[in-house]
Amino acid sequence: MDGITTASFDRTESSRILSFLQKANQAIDEKVVAFQDIKPAAQRHYLIIPVEHIPTVGDLQRRDEDYSLVSCMLSVGKELLHKDAPQTLHRFGFHQPPFNSVDHLHLHCFALPFLPSRDTAGEDKASSFKGVTEPDSPNFIAWCFS
């Protein structure tokens, strides 16, 4: 967990956040952290974030480490939704710049239905995701690197 470094948080703050997540029984491993979104857009809404700081999906490279990371993020999201909401449809997606709200890559994992929610311009919030896709779409990981 010492590997967490972000543009937004210093080392002390990162340690404090990890401690909070561990006490809250959130999913943590060497690659990702997972927790419920504080403003859910669906019946169940998890965020999966990499421990390593990657600003956006546009910063992913066509290298084995990034493919492995996205696969891990998707796998953790699927596992959480399967345990928490097995009887619902699931969708996954990243925000595409300039619509990202946080300067740290995070995968949104939804158990449908979506909740009615609009942004300040009256647009449906789900429209800002780079990809909201079926959980078993064979193109999801390849699409992240397009």
What does this structure look like?
The protein is of the alpha+beta class and 146 residues long. The chain has a single domain (27-144), classed as HIT-like (HIT family, subunit A). Helices cover 27% and strands 19% of the residues. Strands 1-2-3-5-4 form a five-stranded antiparallel beta sheet, with helices on one face. The N and C termini lie far apart (30 Å).
Task: Produce a short descriptive summary.
With 146 residues, the protein is of the alpha+beta class.
Number of strands: 5
Which fold name is given in CATH as the topology? HIT family, subunit A
Query: What's the CATH class, please?
Result: Alpha Beta
Assembly context of the chains: single chain
Distance between the termini: 30 Å
Based on the coordinates given, report the CATH architecture.
2-Layer Sandwich
Helix count?
A: 3
Describe the secondary structure blueprint for this structure.
Elements: H1 11-23, E1 27-28, E2 32-36, E3 42-50, H2 64-84, E4 90-93, E5 107-114, H3 140-144
Features of the shown structure:
HIT domain-containing protein; HIT-like; 27% helix; 146 residues; HIT-like_sf
